Amino acid sequence: MKKKILIVGGGTAGTMTANNLAKKLMYEIDKDEVEITMISNSKYHYYRPGAMYVAFHKASGHEFVREQRTLLMPEVKFLVDEAIEIDTNSNYVKGKSGTKYSYDFVILATGCEVAVDRIPGLKEGGNWFYSYDGAKKLAEKFAELKKGRVLVTVNFPKTPDVPHQCGIAPIETTIMLHDYLKEQGIREDIEIIYTYPKVAQAVTDGLFLQGPTSKVLPSIFDGIGVKYKTSFTLNKVDPEKKIAYSEEGEEIEFDILMSTPPFIATKFIRESGLSKAVDDEGWLPTDKKTLKVKGYENIYTLGDTVDLPVSKAGGTIHNQTDVVADNIASEIRYGYPTESYDGKVIAIAQMGLSCGMPLWYDYKEDVQPTPCSKLGSFVRKGFNMGIYWAAARGMV
Amino acid sequence: MSEKVEVLKTKEMQELEEKFAMLVQTGRIDNIIDLLAVVSDNIEMTTAPMVDKMVGTIDNLATAGFITQNAVRYANREIKKNEVPSLFGLLKLLKDEDTRKGLAFVLHLTKGIGKQV
Ligand SMILES: Cc1cc2nc3c(=O)[nH]c(=O)nc-3n(C[C@H](O)[C@H](O)[C@H](O)COP(=O)(O)OP(=O)(O)OC[C@H]3O[C@@H](n4cnc5c(N)ncnc54)[C@H](O)[C@@H]3O)c2cc1C
């Protein structure tokens, strides 16, 4: 009988996996033994890191959007519908349209979303670059800024050992902000304060979520005159007085609050009954090797929605996608999964507007910071402007 | 009495030294220096807009490759599955929206080529 593979979510994770699966299972598709369907609640696909460049007037945003259909191989059936329910006994996902999508294997890849409401006053008083709308508002504020203080704050999920989206983004944007203000000729008139919460994934009282990078950050920040403060766990914002308060009892005034807000899994996943994450955050309990949702033989997940201790980043997904595709292909062919994820994450961090730092880590080894370079920045920009689309199509 | 100071070298350093000695003796070290200078100059001379344009070109080629590769595979599969259509069968194919979209694309493509030749 024909095997049905359903992919929910047309972002980085869903798209890469759909194409990789179509490639791996082409023989079975040709024989009409396998069918791959994707549903996503948007007709469009956003390259999310592009939002950072919008915040600093380096892009307008449209460069980073494409129609989802154009990124998928024709063997993948694509439908715009929003998943609202999953029935793991009868093996189907229900869409908002009323359609029930039955599956033999399902891949849950709906990412995560910002939950600014979880901190009183943050929505009104803060700004964030984790969405294109947010980044545009931040860009408008930066355009008006002539003197004062930009405060950077970072929040972590309450679920232990789970990071926020793109771990390195707060550092990237702090250094980009420094370069941007220098470009504008107003760096001397603006104070930048970078803060980090007391508990950040596995690190306590640090400036980054991994030890080695946390240790080198002070010298990097000293070099560019960025002030820093650890153990500032944002828990309240007064939008009128423009004051940020921490759980530790401190307060800092700001002109612009550039925040990494709390993140949670999407509504569909939070309400699916599959997660037991604290505070209703919804992260899927994921087997760190097979990438199956724990307790379910035919549900896979990857990307921002998992509860693994690895970065919620495209550079993570690029390594997870082949494991998921290989495992599903092996299950169809032999009846069991054959691949194992080692936690590898590969990325190039944008350290300022013209410096790029290649980095990698896995379950066993933390990031070892290396000097950033102009060449690294070119590779990063190349990725932003084009290579990403080839990667999403499963071409690299 | 002065003591003889011995500089301890790691095994890796010794190996590196031997390899470098050979490069110096054979005169090849100059090539490496030349190569590094060329690479270094090229990095310095490359500008962000150049990278943007180059990547844009690569992206266009990749997109064209993706579309063509997929279309050829699809067409092959359909040809194998079905009999060669009669004249009437061809007309029936034209009823399909995707076919018409593809045909319109090919006609526009032809026009685009026409504008350049
Ligand atoms: C500002 C910023 C900077 C970043 N920088 C980097 C970086 O430098 N390097 C890096 O590797 N990564 C970076 N990332 C992270 C990277 O973009 C994400 O990790 C990646 O996009 C996550 O992919 P995903 O597929 O899990 O989720 P997404 O890409 O968010 O995709 C989720 C998809 O699911 C769909 N969806 C949601 N709910 C439903 C539903 N109920 N039904 C159907 N469809 C649904 C959405 O429409 C979307 O298509 C950055 C992210 C941001 C925001």
UniProtKB/TrEMBL annotation, chain A:
Limits of the FAD/NAD(P)-binding domain: 4-144
Listed InterPro entries: FAD/NAD-bd_sf, FAD/NAD-binding_dom, SQRD
GO function terms (MF aspect): oxidoreductase activity
Transmembrane segments: none
Entry-linked Gene3D superfamilies: FAD/NAD(P)-binding domain
Protein name in the entry: NAD(P)/FAD-dependent oxidoreductase
Species of provenance: Halarcobacter bivalviorum
TrEMBL record, chain B:
InterPro entries xrefs: DUF1641
Protein name stated in the entry: DUF1641 domain-containing protein
Organism lineage: Bacteria, Pseudomonadati, Campylobacterota, Epsilonproteobacteria, Campylobacterales
Pfam families: DUF1641
Organism per entry: Halarcobacter bivalviorum
Highest taxon listed in the record's lineage: Bacteria
